[in-house]
Amino acid sequence: MRSRFKEKLDTGFAAEFRITELAEQTGFSAVYLRRTFAARYGCSPKEYLDQLRNEHAVRRLRFTDDSITDIARACGYSDVYQFSKAFKKRNGFSPTEYRRMHGG
């Protein structure tokens, strides 16, 4: 169960996720999923998803010429502002600054 849940996050990170919806699909409560996921992986499903999205954003900023808007959408953000805010909070730089510094 837990590995299937993590797999859904790993493969579907670009989609909008609601833990409650995933819980319904798996037949477990959202509280149970959050608790068992955190016990197994050391972070909440949301933290894991944020980390996963950030890793993909970093790669795309460094190795593609995709627009910031396209990268935001591809990494599961509904708008560029949310993406930029989350990226800067996690990395200390805006996506544009990061790209400039790391050559993308």
Automatic annotation (TrEMBL):
PANTHER family: ARAC-FAMILY TRANSCRIPTIONAL REGULATOR (PTHR43280), HTH-TYPE TRANSCRIPTIONAL ACTIVATOR RHAS (PTHR43280:SF28)
SMART domains named in the record: HTH_ARAC
Alphabetic keyword roster: DNA-binding, Transcription, Transcription regulation
GO molecular function, one term: DNA-binding transcription factor activity
Domain spans labelled HTH araC/xylS-type: 3-101
One Pfam family named in its UniProt record: HTH_18
Name of the protein in question: AraC family transcriptional regulator
InterPro entries in alphabetical order: Homeodomain-like_sf, HTH_AraC, Tscrpt_reg_AraC-type_HTH
